[in-house]
Amino acid sequence: MKKYLSNSEYWQSELHYMHDVEVWKAKAIELKLGADLFVQREQDALMDKLPKGSKAFFPANMARMLMAYALENLIKAHFFHDNEQRKKLFTIKGNLKGAIQWHKLNRLVVLVGIELDDSEKDDLELLEMCSVWKGRYPFPINESKLPRKRRPMASREALFKRRIKEIDKAMEEGKPLRADLWDRTHTSIGTEYDTFNKLFDLLCEQLESIEKKAVPC
Asked: In terms of DSSP H, where are the helices of the chain?
């Protein structure tokens, strides 16, 4: 009769690999390659370079979802080599706890010492939305995730007037108008891809530094 390891024994045997930066990097690279393929697919579609008969679909949010997952893997690899974070990971036997369960990219990057400007934070918020639901489901599973829906205007002229007021108010306050997050989920890949690639490279550099200092666990 075959004998199998118990779940607890199997878990313990995997702990060594959890501390291995290369394991996390390998998964992140897989996810990045998937995102790159979706981005290239979108670019080919826009440039009319797809093979004749190719089925049309909107790959941008799936690309954003994979970008978010890739960044999560690189960030969370740090936690096994940070004494404060590592303590939180293993508070419950057989279950990883703490920030490793988060999907909030803007909070996660702070934990690994990365500072972003407002535009980059907006890009990460977009990637996070796609990782949590927009890249996977047609609707959010919580009503609080729905966009604010304005009441319809009586005419196109009224709509223009309202927008002009918003622009004037923003200029007076010195606060530039930003693209609405929800609207961005219906557009092609933009600055978020640049932000993703920048962070991906930076996080890989950080992990290389960790590897050089790491001691056997």
From this structure: 7-18, 21-46, 60-79, 83-89, 105-111, 118-129, 156-173, 181-184, 191-213
Q: CB neighbours of 53 closer than 8 A, spacing ≥ 6?
A: none
Amino acid 156: pLDDT: 81
The number of domains in the chain is: 1
Give this prediction's pTM: 0.85
The mean-pLDDT minimum among 6-20, 60-74, 149-163 falls in: 149-163
Question: For residues 38 and 63, is the Cβ–Cβ distance under 8 A?
Answer: yes
Which structural domain, as residue segments, surrounds residue 199? 7-151+181-213
- CA 77 to each of CA 18, 36, 106, 162, 196: distance values in angstroms, whole numbers, following the listed order: 8, 22, 16, 47, 17
Does 207 fall in a domain? yes
- Cα 5 to Cα 3: distance, rounded to the nearest angstrom: 7
- DSSP type of residue 154: S
Q: Does residue 23 fall inside a structural domain?
A: yes
Chain Cα centroid distance, residue 108:
10
User: Is 167 a member of any domain?
Assistant: no
Residue 216, pLDDT score: 47
| 180 or 59: which leads in pLDDT | 59
